[in-house]
Design goal:
By secondary structure, the chain is an alpha/beta fold. Helices cover 35% and strands 24% of the residues. It has helices at residues 22-29, 51-57, 73-84, 89-99, 112-124, 142-157, 169-173, 193-199, 215-218, 242-248; strands spanning 11-15, 41-42, 45-46, 58-61, 130-133, 161-166, 178-183, 186-192, 201-208, 223-229, 232-238, 253-256. α4 (89-99) packs antiparallel against α5. 28% of the residues are buried.
């Protein structure tokens, strides 16, 4: 019972807890499985029976690695480029360098983190007009995450379209135009990111170099469950966190979680 339209040129985030139906939805879009009822249309094509054409035209990060372990990175990526009928090898090598991957490495010897990096490289290397990415940030380190966000912004500047799934509000609100959230296979709601951000509740902990007075933070209107004990602060913040950070910056902050 899911209805959704992603607009051309949009960055759309699909939120959901584990088991909400995100991967099933992605597999329906790519014709790995077919709906019991209803239809899915990708790039103007009904997906049933058009899976090969769609997968050839879309940058896809699956939930689990689908690359052959016995191949080298170079062999696998050249094969993918040939199957898709497109791809700039110089751009592909640039992506590999940026993610710190070696063409000669055998895929089966890669650590889990490097396999996730390689999944991003194969999705972005052909620079398609549409990307369907299933939890692309899962298991990534900070540097690779920053590269991902930059690539997504480049897609937007070039009028491409991205749909990516996530379990994290902070991941999608950073770059998405709109966010939808799944609950047990149904669309529970869709909002523009700015609306979602205004309702997001964050749990915040801070440690200062010296004790701070609780009255400094007590007057902030969007704080609840405020507790200040010596050098430590704990609270919940609904919406914009900037005013809390401005007040905290009057003191020497050691850490923020």
């Amino acid at each position: 019972d899911l209805a959704l339209e992603v607009e051309s040129g949009e960055i759309f985030g699909l939120l959901g807890l584990k088991g909400a139906g995100k991967t099933t939805f992605v597999r329906l879009l790519l014709d790995y499985i077919r709906p019991t009822s209803g239809t899915a249309v990708v790039l103007g094509m009904e997906t049933a029976g058009k899976g090969v054409t769609i997968r050839r035209s879309v940058g896809h990060v699956p939930s689990q690695s689908m690359l052959f372990d016995h191949l080298s990175i170079e062999h696998a990526l050249r094969l993918i480029a040939k199957l898709r009928g497109r791809g700039d090898w110089s751009y592909t090598c640039d992506l590999l360098d940026e993610f710190g991957l070696d063409l000669k490495q055998r895929i089966g010897s890669l650590a889990a983190l490097d396999k996730r990096k390689l999944a991003l490289v194969q999705a972005f290397m052909s620079q398609p007009e549409l990307y369907i990415l299933d939890e692309p940030l899962k298991g990534l380190d900070t540097r690779s995450t920053e590269i991902f966000y930059r690539l997504v912004k480049e897609v937007r500047s070039g009028t491409g379209t991205v749909l990516f799934t996530s379990t994290s509000v902070s991941e999608v609100e950073r770059v998405c135009d709109r966010v939808g959230w799944l609950n047990s296979g149904s669309m529970a709601g869709i909002e523009r990111t700015i609306q979602l951000r205004s309702r997001t509740i964050r749990e915040v902990e801070m440690e200062f170099s010296q004790p701070v007075p609780d009255k400094v933070f007590a007057g902030l209107p969007n704080l609840t469950d405020l507790s200040v004990q010596g050098r430590r602060l704990h609270c919940r913040v609904q919406g914009d966190i900037r005013e809390l950070l401005q007040q905290a910056n009057r003191y020497a902050v050691l850490s923020v979680t």
